[in-house]
Amino acid sequence: MGKMLLCASAVLVCLGLSGCGTVERADSLGLMRPLRSDIPAYRAPELRKQADKLAQPTFPKEHRATLTLRESLGLALQHNPELQSFAWELRVQEAEILQASLPPNPVLTGMVENFGGHRPLNHFEGAMSTFRLSQLIELGEKRMKRKRLAEENQALSAWDYEAKRLEVITQVARRYIEVLADQQRVALAQETLALTEQMYKIVQDRAATGVVATVQIDKALVRVSDEQIQLHNTQQKLAATRQQLTAMWGNAEPVFTEVTGELENVAKIPEQQRLMQFVLQNPHIARWGAEIARRQAAVAVAESLAVPSVTLGAGLRRFNATDENAFVVEVGVPLKLFDRNQGGRLKARYNLLQAQTQQ
């Protein structure tokens, strides 16, 4: 009996596992990166072999002296908390692809009949014991289409990640320029205060010799006080913008002393034709191609659900009354009389039309 059941089990397992493969994450998803593709961004680590361990946070190594724009972008792309959360979404979609590629598990069923009655069926003397192994065979390429839908979901998440990457680059550049401008404002305020203090001393000397009225001393002192207040406000604003910049890579307090750069060097705006090429490469625009492909894959999945799947089963039956064994084979096909996934298919098509309109 054991050998017969083992043979039947092997046949069904082979049927169920045919076509099953592992899913590997592609390093490139075909993304267009027109801006700062030379600076690597954060990539969530793979946790398949250590799923019980949490990802350890990495802390940025910020320079303690001058900081360049490229260094700021590198720190943000590697350590920005929001960008890291988007990177984990890619790993989530990778797991979805793996799950979608797996076939359903076989079902082992044990059943005992005709026992516990009156003679000659009392106790288990006339019982029939059936052990059956069944496997759902998915038709209509359901598993392949589920996997394709999961891959399109990952491609869409990759475009969302790319959009967030460009948003981080833009925010870092703006905050960096603001810090650079505030540094120059502070330097200008310091020079103005020094000139005002010199002027105050000159007015004091001239008032002592009677060249100017003593009331001019008070006016000069007021100007000095105004410039001191202006310098203090400018320094406070610089401290705030420095903190906003360093927050882009997760630091609570800035470590760098200053940023470098020239505000006078302004790049020329490209021609309109060149700008339109950049527009087409913008993730918010380019993602719609992936969105439509995803909804087309959803339509394919919805249509595949209308195809009935087949359940195959095989096993062994034991007749205690005659001390004999026999094989059991079963085939189960659902009758698609009422539910042929009409609503699901219609919804998927409407979603596709909606995405095409939004594009």
Explain what this protein looks like in three dimensions.
With 359 residues, the protein is an alpha+beta fold. It has a single domain (2-16, 89-263, 276-358), classed as Outer membrane efflux proteins (OEP). 54% of the residues lie in helices and 11% in strands. It is built from eight helices and six strands; from the N terminus they run H-E-H-H-E-E-H-H-E-H-H-E-E-H. The strands form two sheets. Strands 2-3-5-6 form a four-stranded antiparallel β-sheet. The chain has a two-stranded parallel ribbon with strand order 1-4. The longest helix is centred in the middle third of the chain and has 67 residues, at 142-208. The chain is elongated. The relative contact order is 0.15.
Summary tags:
alpha+beta; 359 residues; single chain; Outer membrane efflux proteins (OEP); four-stranded antiparallel sheet
Question: Mind sketching the topology for me?
Answer:
Blueprint (H helix, E strand, L loop, with lengths): L1 H16 L48 E2 L1 H11 L1 H20 L6 E7 L14 E10 L4 H67 L6 H32 L11 E2 L12 H9 L2 H22 L5 E10 L4 E9 L9 H17 L1
Parallel strand pairs: 1-4
Antiparallel strand pairs: 2-3, 3-5, 5-6
Question: What number is the mean pLDDT?
Answer: 81
CATH architecture: Up-down Bundle
| CATH C-level category | Mainly Alpha
Question: How many DSSP H or I helices?
Answer: 8
